[in-house]
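STRUCTURE:
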């Protein structure tokens, strides 16, 4: 049921604050920022299993570098038995591994938090699903050999801030996740060499985890005893251990780096404000979750989140990738709010009320809905 505080605009998450529509990479995006480049995919594009590279959202903190793949090397250093310097050809000699996984910015949906929070005001399209191919990070670390005390793996890209006062974007992930057989260093995205905007020649793929860990233009891996000491691990991309009341500041000591994504679904069709004829209407969209959990069910409501009916899940039941869903609805004349709600195999469901407010505006997974007008 909707609570007394129900605010339809918040659930719809469709208010566009700044920027505008841009045709970039041959597809339509919402342009949040051009420097650095932050491009959001319109939700109506999410009607396929894989998000085409040219329609895939972009989130960069600095200018995108153009890397000369012949001169490029991946360095592996820190708490390792021997340092490595690997060319792309060296990496391609290691066993190839591929998987389908959702890449989502932890800030996707930030624009729906009230009170508002600073940061890119993503609506819902800071997410995409792709087929990633490359090598296991574990295989690269095994070649270097780990020294006692190794506990975190620092990940550093070629990109650097324009201004010296801006911190450089870097991450570290805990060693167990780095050694997980599905954590990859990918050189291909959807069967093509990694596009420049998505990290050519090599990026990290951390399935089920937040997008900020998926370092693009990877050039240096540093095995460490502790977390990366930089701004983007120690100050940014952190979530309250115990979320508190909306608007209340949270001291950094009461936060921790984010790890797994949370269960979520989006309606891709019909489109918001679409006019439809009465009769059977196919409602479709995508649903995904975090860690190695899977989607257990998706339900559709056509009465503003009051009653729910199951949707059909399409595609393979496997972790990391999203699942398309579909439901046919005999629409009577009138205005209707059509919404979707996903539940995962951990038993977690999208909240009917606001997701926990947090100062960074992360992990928004409220109900997404569209308003449709059915008439002659
Ligand atoms: N080197 C580098 N890697 C990066 C970033 C960045 O700015 N620089 N942004 C991160 C964030 S916050 C996200 S959400 C994803 C976005 O990946 P995409 O642009 O391929 O969609 O890349 C991550 N990897
Ligand atoms: Mo992100």
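SEQUENCE:
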């Amino acid at each position: 049921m909707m609570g007394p505080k129900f605010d339809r605009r918040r659930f719809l998450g469709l208010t566009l604050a700044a920027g505008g529509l841009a045709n970039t990479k041959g597809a339509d995006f919402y342009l949040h920022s051009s420097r650095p480049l932050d491009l959001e995919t319109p939700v109506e594009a999410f009607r396929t299993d894989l998000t085409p590279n040219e329609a895939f959202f972009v989130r960069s903190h600095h200018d995108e570098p153009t890397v000369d793949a012949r001169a490029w090397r991946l360095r592996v250093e820190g708490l390792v038995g021997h340092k490595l310097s690997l060319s792309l050809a060296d990496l391609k000699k290691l066993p190839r591994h591929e998987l389908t996984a959702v890449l989502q910015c932890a800030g996707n949906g930030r624009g729906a938090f009230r009170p508002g929070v600073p940061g890119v005001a993503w609506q819902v399209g800071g997410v995409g699903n792709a087929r990633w191919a490359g090598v296991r990070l574990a295989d690269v670390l095994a070649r270097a050999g780990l020294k006692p005390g190794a506990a975190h793996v620092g990940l550093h890209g070629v990109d650097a801030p324009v201004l010296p006062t801006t911190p450089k974007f870097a991450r570290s992930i805990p060693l167990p996740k780095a050694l997980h057989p599905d954590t990859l260093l990918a050189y291909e995205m959807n069967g093509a060499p990694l596009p420049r905007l998505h990290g050519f020649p090599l990026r990290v793929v951390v399935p089920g985890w937040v997008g900020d860990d998926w370092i693009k233009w990877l050039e240096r891996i540093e095995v460490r005893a502790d977390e990366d000491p930089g701004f983007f691990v120690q100050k940014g991309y952190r979530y309250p251990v115990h979320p508190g009341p909306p608007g209340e500041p949270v001291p950094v000591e009461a936060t921790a780096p984010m790890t797994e994504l949370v269960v979520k679904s989006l309606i891709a069709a019909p489109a918001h404000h679409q006019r439809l004829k009465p009769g059977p209407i196919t409602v479709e969209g995508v649903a995904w979750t975090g860690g190695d959990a899977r989607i257990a069910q998706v339900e559709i409501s056509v009465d503003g989140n009051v009653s729910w009916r199951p949707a059909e899940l399409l595609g393979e039941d496997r972790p990391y990738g999203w699942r398309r869903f579909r439901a046919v609805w005999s629409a009577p004349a009138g205005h209707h709010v059509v919404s979707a709600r996903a539940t995962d195999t951990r038993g977690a469901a999208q909240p009917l009320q606001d997701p926990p407010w947090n100062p960074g505006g992360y992990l928004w997974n409220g109900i997404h809905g569209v308003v449709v007008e059915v008439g002659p």
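REMARK: The first strand starts at residue 20 and ends at 24.
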